[in-house]
Design goal:
Number of helices: 11
Largest sheet: 9 strands, mixed
Strand content: 5-15%
Bound molecules: iron/sulfur cluster
Number of strands: 13
Length: 299
């Protein structure tokens, strides 16, 4: 495992903030404009057009944020699609108590709950997740072993072991970096039993020049800070492996199916308004679009 990183990108051990996966491209721990967001309001939930995310406080010495986490009413999230931990990896053992609170108290209020991980999730945790009927697992697999603190092999193992336990799981290639991502794992993904994946691009930041080959940086620099998905052959690689491209949001919608609870428009709007009092909006869409999607999910 790679060393921990603080929000300034400095690798240290035993620090209060950060994520042990230590992806070089991480906008949470590395990119100053984004890391400020998390550092200033450690543990505040976040929201985008697909999901509301409950975030465990990273600084466990800060009792105020810990108390705030545990005093959030689970009913606020009734009828929503709710994720756990956008500010680190959800299965970092440091968060195990907050994860258990999420699975025990918040999950029953929601249509589905989800975690996106790059962690080599142990069998014991997968066994626990298999007991939460509305839990959905997303495994981020990128073919970028050189710049991440986990391996493609470990993530294929999680995808395989999750499937063995009947956990509904989705592979997500995020970020795909043209010229760096090694997609040779795609046939294995298919063999394990996955038929669909989502592929998302990279939000370039000049700080990435320190590890990115110059020719790769040059192709992203022209797009500024917009998330950019360059097709240098990945679509053909998906087809060759027999995999279909499908957005994660669509998968969540399908997995939601007719799951309840279904709220009235008034009740949904009232709960979303209360959630908005404490969340970061992390979406390139307008705030109005994020709010409308949050109400819609609860109906
Ligand atoms: S796993 Fe996520 S939070 Fe952790 S370093 Fe990688 S991108 Fe950042």
């Amino acid at each position: 495992m790679a060393g921990l990183k603080n929000p300034d990108g400095e690798k240290v051990a035993g620090m209060a903030y950060g994520c042990p996966v230590a992806c070089e491209y991480c906008v949470v721990t590395n990119v100053e404009s984004r890391s400020e967001l998390w550092r200033e309001d450690d543990g505040a939930p976040s929201i985008n057009k697909a999901v509301t995310i409950v975030n465990p406080p990273l600084d466990r010495a800060n009792l105020e944020t810990l108390n705030r986490f545990y005093s959030m009413s689970p009913e606020l999230f009734r009828g929503d699609v709710v994720g756990f931990c956008a500010n680190s990896d959800p299965f970092w053992p440091r968060h195990r108590r907050e994860l258990e609170h999420f699975l025990t108290k918040i999950a029953p209020e929601t249509k589905i709950v989800t975690c996106v991980t790059k962690w080599n999730v142990p069998d014991r945790m997968l066994d626990r997740l298999a007991k939460v009927p509305n839990f959905r697992l997303v495994v981020s697999i990128t073919g970028l072993d050189e710049i991440e603190g986990t391996s493609t092999e470990d993530r294929l193992s999680v995808l395989e072991r999750a499937k063995e336990r009947g956990i509904e799981t989705y592979p997500l290639i995020h970020p795909y970096i043209a010229g760096m991502s090694d997609l040779s794992f795609l046939p294995r993904l298919k063999k394990i039993g996955y038929g669909q994946v989502d592929v998302k691009g990279l939000r370039y930041d000049p700080s990435m020049d320190s590890w990115m080959p110059p020719e790769v940086a040059a192709q992203y620099r022209q797009y500024g800070n917009d998330e950019t998905l360059i097709d240098d052959g990945w679509r053909d690689a998906l087809v060759a492996a027999g995999l279909e491209l499908q957005g994660l949001k669509k998968w969540y919608m399908e997995e939601m199916g007719d799951n309840g609870p279904h709220l009235s428009p008034e009740d949904a709007a009232e709960r979303v308004a209360r959630v908005l009092e404490m969340v970061h909006i992390t979406s390139s869409d307008s705030d109005q679009a994020v709010i409308a999607a949050a109400v819609e999910r609860r109906l």
